[in-house]
Amino acid sequence: MVPPLSDILKRSASADAINWLNGEVVALRSDFNQRRFYYAFSGVSRHFDKTARVNVEAGDLDSLDAPCPGFTLAGWDEFRLARVILLTVLAEQPTDIYQSTLEKVLGSADLREQVAIFSALPLLPDPDFLVTLARDGSRTNIVDVFDAIALDNPFPAAHFPEEAWNQLVLKALFISRPLYRMEGIDDRANPTLAEALSNLAHERWAAGRVVSAELWRSCANCLTDSIASDIERVAVSDEPGDREAAALIVAEDTTGRFAAIREPLGDLIDAARSGDLTWESLGRQLASA
Amino acid sequence: MRFFDSHVHMVSRTTDDYQRMAAAGVAALIEPSFWQGQPRTEPGSFKDYFNSLIGFERFRASQFGIKHYCTIGLNPKEANNEKLADAVMELLPLYICKEGVVGIGEIGFDDQTAMEEKYLRIQALMALEADLPIQIHTPHRDKKTGTIRTMDVLEDVGCDPAKVIIDHNNEETVKAVLDRGYWAAFTIYPHTKLGNERMVEIMREYGSERIVVDSSADWGISDPLAVPKTAALLREHGVSLEKIEQVTYYNPLTAYGQSGQVQESDWEDTEGIDPTALFAGNTLLRGGQDIKEAMGGDLIIR
């Protein structure tokens, strides 16, 4: 059908459901029509189990047609994977049909359907066309939809222009999403984003509020004097993760500007150098708190 | 005691209504697509309306522990604008197979025009294609003729009466509808449709088989508690608990359950508001006094 995705789906789904999906894939490939696609895409809910997690094994995605670093199916339910399979079949159609059908389906999608569409982005063609859809989608207030775009998804880092990437990171912080799950978070760091993040921290501090310690991750390689003084402030904070964040930045710093805070952060800096403390481990720790 | 109101237009109701419905034991409801008091002029208005039925309204209901389902369709009032109606027919396939869409509805006749019949036929065919139940709106004017004509059209298209719920019945239509094998729904709606004292009499005559009670509460003067109130009134008049549960819960569940998109386990596993916690055991039906207070004093809807 659509290996390797269909092989993964087969592990958890019922034989009836797989047969139905296979029939739809064959029919759509031999004689595509939009109505059939609409019925199949929505109709996934009639055949699969939304509570069943798909069962992914190591190496499963090695045989994808195009390599897709960072793409993962971890945590997906059957609805999501079955719909992503149908979207890859839609993507085989001529560009105008593919694009117009995808726009119509997205424009009428329920929550789970939106999640499936945005999860499929790394596998679909015409990234320029998809960026517009994904940027619109990321303006949602529905956390599951935002997560499908921003978390565990390599598409934004690979294709969002800088201003869109920066907004995505800022919004993730605003709605308390874990930044360590944003693919490419370090690669896409930039001075404009670092300044916006520092401004966000100052705004929160002025209001007597806290910011996630993960915020400083995208500042690590864009240390202005102003941000460096933010780090000095964070280094003596009692908020969860703040001292760890400061230690991670100081451990990488080669300018010697953080002399004053090296001493009190000593143990944490050692942990950062040994790899016991990473942005990943800090993110996990904050997310589980 | 739990209730399933299979016809209520929640987009027109407030959160106070949701709270009162949840407290009175409404566990699940169906919101049919309808007009909104004035005709829409653009297809996009339908698209956004359908999106709200499968999106925000579902979410809003969930905040109160109520499971929200819907039926999707072009209502007969707006079927007389052919250009608009054709555009809506293009939209419907995007929605009818979605999760939680339990039927095509509410469709049928209003003025009983040729145009209304055209879109009733198209949508009945779509229901066959998608293997979905149909929720029928029967007309306010010349109701008996319109109801029979609706059944004639549906049978001509090839619909199975067991998969069709005909709504807004009254004493004049019920016999023909039941005799032909359809589900007969009754809307307890003050002034313009059916008061619930009349419902007591109808159940005395026709029993509870294939009979459904709903509220059709909407943007007009109507009552989102019509189903629990009618249940309590039926109980006061000595109707058995079993029959009451049939018409206010199990029958609509069975009828719309044919879509495969609604089953009792959808809300049994969730932590909704437990009406028994508020009404202590089954006092909703057994202790009439408490219920009257909870419902605002009067069970009778005239």
Task: State the main characteristics.
heterodimer, A: mainly alpha, elongated, B: 302 residues, alpha/beta, TIM Barrel
Order of the strands making up the biggest sheet of chain B: 1-2-3-4-5-6-7-8
Tell me roughly what share of residues is in helical segments of chain A.
55-70%
Helix and strand content put the structural class of chain A at mainly alpha
* Helix-strand topology string of chain A: HHHHHHHHHHHHHHHH
Oligomeric state of shown chains: heterodimer
Give the terminus-to-terminus CA distance of chain B.
24 Å
How are the SSEs placed, and which strands pair?
The complex is a heterodimer of chains A (289) and B (302).
Chain A: H1 5-12, H2 15-30, H3 34-47, H4 78-90, H5 95-107, H6 111-120, H7 127-137, H8 143-150, H9 155-159, H10 162-174, H11 191-206, H12 225-234, H13 242-252, H14 259-262, H15 266-274, H16 279-288
Helix pairs in contact in A: 1-4, 2-3, 2-4, 3-4, 4-6, 6-8, 10-11, 13-15
Chain B: E1 3-5, H1 15-23, E2 26-32, H2 43-54, H3 56-62, E3 67-72, H4 82-95, E4 101-108, H5 114-130, E5 134-137, H6 143-157, E6 164-167, H7 174-179, E7 183-187, H8 196-206, E8 211-214, H9 226-236, H10 241-257, H11 265-268, H12 275-279, H13 283-286, H14 288-294
Parallel strand pairs in B: 1-2, 2-3, 3-4, 4-5, 5-6, 6-7, 7-8
Helix pairs in contact in B: 2-4, 4-5, 5-6, 8-9, 9-10
Can you summarize this structure?
The complex is a heterodimer of chains A (289) and B (302). Chain A is mainly α and 289 residues long.
Task: Provide a descriptive summary of the structure in words.
The complex is a heterodimer of chains A (289) and B (302). With 289 residues, chain A is mostly helical. Chain A folds into 2 domains: 1-124, no CATH class; 190-289, no CATH class. Chain A is 59% helix and 0% strand. In chain A, helix 6 (111-120) runs parallel beside helix 8 and helix 10 (162-174) packs parallel to helix 11 (191-206). Chain A starts with a helix and ends with a helix. The mean pLDDT of chain A is 94. Mean pLDDT of chain B is 90; it is low at 271-289. With 302 residues, chain B is α/β, with parallel strands linked by helices. Chain B has helices at 15-23, 43-54, 56-62, 82-95, 114-130, 143-157, 174-179, 196-206, 226-236, 241-257, 265-268, 275-279, 283-286, 288-294, and strands spanning 3-5, 26-32, 67-72, 101-108, 134-137, 164-167, 183-187, 211-214. In chain B, helix 2 (43-54) runs parallel beside helix 4 (82-95) and helix 8 (196-206) crosses helix 9. An 8-stranded parallel β-sheet of chain B has the order 1-2-3-4-5-6-7-8, sandwiched between helices. Chain B has a single domain (3-294), classed as Metal-dependent hydrolases (TIM Barrel, Alpha-Beta Barrel), CATH 3.20.20.140.
